[in-house]
Amino acid sequence: EDGAEDDDDPVGSAQSYKEDGNKEYVKKTKEGYYKAIISYSEGLSKDCKDNELDSQLYCNRAAAQFCIGNYRRATEDCEKAIALNPSYLKAVNRAIECQ
Fold first, then answer.
1. CA 62 to CA 3: how far, in whole Å?
2. Which helix (H) or strand (E) holds 46?
3. pLDDT reading at 5 higher than 70
4. How far does CA 42 lie from the centroid of its chain?
5. Which of 13, 24, 56, 77 satisfies CB 3.0 to 4.6 Å to 36 for a cystine?
6. Taking phi first (over 0 means left), then psi (-120 to 50 degrees means alpha), and beta for anything else, what does residue 85 get?
7. Measuring CA to CA, how many Å separate 30 from each of 7, 8, 23, 54, 97?
8. Within a 10 A sphere around the Cβ of 23, how many other Cβ atoms?
């Protein structure tokens, strides 16, 4: 995996996982959503200390969770995204959709 060799660059690694997740998400299939969730989770596991990137990963994972009907998990991810970046309106709007 791309991320495995970039452990010395957690931001680059997290960004790479985000891009991988986005490629899966746009397929708009159940399998794609599950793969996207895995990629976004891997990106978050890099602990990159970049609040903006982490909030995007949480928000994107929330979108994938929402698409497969995991509304509680989607809401939790939105809350985490908002906690990291309170002005992230996309996360706020997505949280509202989950209700």
1. 21
2. none
3. no
4. 9
5. 24
6. beta
7. 30, 33, 13, 23, 19
8. 13
